[in-house]
């Protein structure tokens, strides 16, 4: 009896997603935490990739500097993810709560799969 099959392409995509999120957190100086991540595949006649939305949360005064670094740097960020090129990155939304001090930042990234 054969066991469940595993598609290596799915494993590569999961690893690439994790590396993308890790690099967003690195832009924030290692501060904050991921709340959610979603992606939607896209393709044209010659290209394929995904549109990612990643929501990160920053709490307290010490994490606010990380949020500022992320907001200021995401569009200039250099993302090194094997098999993927980030062709667009921007902050889509940020929401600030004064008490308790919290900031959520939603970044949108468009990736292109490399063959």
Outline the structure in words.
Helix content is 30%, strand content 43%. The chain is of the alpha+beta class and 115 residues long. It has a single domain, classed as STM4215-like (2-Layer Sandwich). The chain has a four-stranded antiparallel sheet. A hairpin with a 4-residue loop joins strand 1 and strand 2 (48-59).
Structural class: alpha+beta
Arithmetic mean pLDDT:
86
Distance between the termini: 34 Å
Largest sheet: 4 strands, antiparallel
Counted by DSSP, the helix tally is 2
Report strand %. 35-45%
Low-pLDDT runs = none
> In CATH's first tier, which class applies?
Alpha Beta
Helix content: 25-40%
Q: What is the strand tally?
A: 4
For this structure, the CATH topology is: STM4215-like
What's the order of the H and E elements?
HEEHEE
Shape: elongated
Number of domains: 1
CATH architecture: 2-Layer Sandwich
Rounded Rg? 16 Å
| Strands ordered across the widest β-sheet | 1-2-4-3
Write the SSE topology.
Elements: H1 8-27, E1 33-43, E2 48-59, H2 60-73, E3 84-97, E4 102-113
Antiparallel strand pairs: 1-2, 2-4, 3-4
Provide keyphrases for this structure.
115 residues, STM4215-like
Summarize this, please?
This protein is an alpha+beta fold. It has helices spanning 8-27, 60-73, and strands at residues 33-43, 48-59, 84-97, 102-113.
């Amino acid at each position: 009896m054969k066991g469940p099959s595993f598609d290596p392409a799915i494993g590569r995509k999961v690893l690439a997603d994790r590396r993308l999120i890790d690099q967003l957190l690195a832009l924030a100086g290692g501060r904050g935490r991921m709340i959610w991540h979603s992606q939607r595949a896209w393709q044209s006649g010659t290209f394929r990739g995904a549109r990612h939305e990643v929501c990160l949360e920053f709490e307290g005064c010490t994490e606010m500097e990380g949020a500022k670094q992320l907001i200021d740097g995401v569009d200039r960020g250099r993302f090194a993810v094997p098999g993927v090129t980030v062709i667009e990155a921007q902050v889509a939304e940020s929401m600030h709560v004064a008490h308790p001090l919290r900031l959520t930042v939603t970044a949108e990234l468009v990736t292109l799969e490399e063959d």
